[in-house]
Amino acid sequence: MAKVIDSFRPYVTWANPRGKWPDIIFSTRVRLARNLAGSAFPQRASAGTLRGIRETALEAVKATRLFARGHYFKTAALSPLEKNFLIERHHISHNLASLERAGAVAVNNEEDLAVMVNEEDHLRLQSIASGFSIPAAFEAVNKLDDELGRLLPYAYSGKFGFLTACPTNVGTGLRVSCLVHLPALSRSGQMPKLLESLSHLGMTARGIYGEGTYVLGDFYQISNATCLGHSEDEFCANLDRTITNLIRLEILSREKLAAPSVKLKTEDSVFRAYGLLKNARSISYGEFMQNLSLVRMGAAMGYPVRTDFGTLNQFTLLMQPAHLEHMSGRALGPDERDAARADYIRKNLN
Amino acid sequence: MLCQVCKKNAASVFLKVAVNNKMTEMHLCERCAAGKGASFAGFDVEPFNISGMTGNLSGYFKEFLPREKRTLHCRSCGLAYHEFKEAGFLGCPECYSSFEPQLTELLTRIHGNCGHTGKNCGASIVHPVVNGASPAARRSVSELKAALKKAVETEDFESAARLRDRIRELGENHG
Known about the structure:
The structure holds two protein chains of two kinds. By secondary structure, chain A is of the alpha+beta class. Chain A contains 13 helices and ten strands. Chain A has helices at 3-6, 47-63, 80-88, 94-98, 134-151, 183-188, 191-200, 232-257, 260-279, 285-300, 309-318, 321-328, 334-348; strands at 25-34, 71-74, 104-107, 113-117, 123-130, 155-157, 161-162, 174-181, 203-206, 219-224. In chain A, the strands form two sheets. Chain A has an eight-stranded antiparallel sheet with strand order 2-3-4-5-1-8-10-9. In chain A, helix 3 crosses helix 12 and helix 9 packs across helix 10. The two termini of chain A are 30 Å apart. By secondary structure, chain B is mainly alpha-helical. Chain B has a two-stranded antiparallel sheet with strand order 1-2. In chain B, strand 1 and strand 2 form a beta hairpin. The radius of gyration of chain B is 22 Å and the shape is elongated. Residues 18-23, 37-56 and 123-138 of chain B have low confidence and may be disordered. Classes of the chains: A alpha+beta, B mainly alpha. Chain A binds chain B through residues 35, 37-41, 43-44, 120, 142, 145, 149-150, 153-163, 165-168, 170-172, 174, 196, 199-200, 202, 226-232, and chain B through 20-22, 57, 77, 79, 87-93, 96-97, 100, 103, 106-107, 110-119, 121-131, 133, 138, 173-174.
């Protein structure tokens, strides 16, 4: 049905619970926005210019040898299902998938490095790592940037830094983000206040799929809101500090949920969620994530839920609509999809 | 302190506005403050409307950027400054030089600081020439110096002069 999807592994390694704090930090992503000197930004460039940039960019990416045995796709050649699959794997954005222009994406074999071509900027370089791994994720994307920078003439100014289509990205072009799982804090009612204080610290909170997306299963993507005026290291260190504080607050909230007065209620919620996942005959992705969040928290708090983070993390990826449809081998309507999801979970949850 | 909008009159009005959960401070003269719709004694104006600023960034740009006295265009891609204010996107890298004073002010507001202190881009050129950039224009200073040396050795003085000028230009920009 979809050759593109078949070329990917069924599981992604960055969803394995490695790195620091895997029970709270799902993954770390770092992206760099870059443009080529001498060409209009994608929104204003002609179709011919965009095609030229696409070819030049893909050629340069191949020449870095970091994408050996990698995947290279022109977005125009992708079916809606394939595009959704790549969105669900965080390799492309909703924006790139929806644009009718000469876009492309390159993904390395390990699926932890990707380059989007002709999205909002000519190039969006991205690295992704499991757990709380800001230095490792930055190092990986920085290496890719160094190599591409030797091959491509980046648009750069001594005053403003790396020049981008939207001035909110100019400077370092850096966005560091951690996908954090905050089930206890979400239940404590502190989230609205916490999100407000994050914005005062120059941080932004988004949903799982980035800008403009909903928060599902108490997963928040926390990232730097500004990227000019400080070095990459400073932005990374700033986010590292913020996330470390969030981890501390989440642990405190989990301890409160384990206090004798509320212990039974917490345990009941966790096992009810487990029972629902194990027995449901039809379940939407939203309901699945809501219950998975409780089971994941229960596993972290030491409850015998007979499952592990590795399985739960892979579930969050595999139970998304395009992944599910691909596993089923045929197009599914919404009801069929919810039934297929419940079926898969029942069979694969320990 | 001069008014941040007209940069002519003394600022006598201090405005503090919440935009996207952030407090933004503005120092304005009375005339510009009235233009922004702030309600002050002695001015018969509409109440200050912040809805256009809190919704999205393009609204933010539109409201806060100084009104240009004449229509500004990017000298390379032709983007009009008001188009950027509407959409929030610049047209090409050269827009940053064409609208430098306006962007300096805007970026200071967005990022709190407008000087890049991050990674250098050794292989890139500063404020690139957008149209008609020759391959030589895309080369780094060290590559250009090597080419200059070779041109002098082979007595290709026409190329050497061109390379010397380019190196000087890049050196100035880097400085």
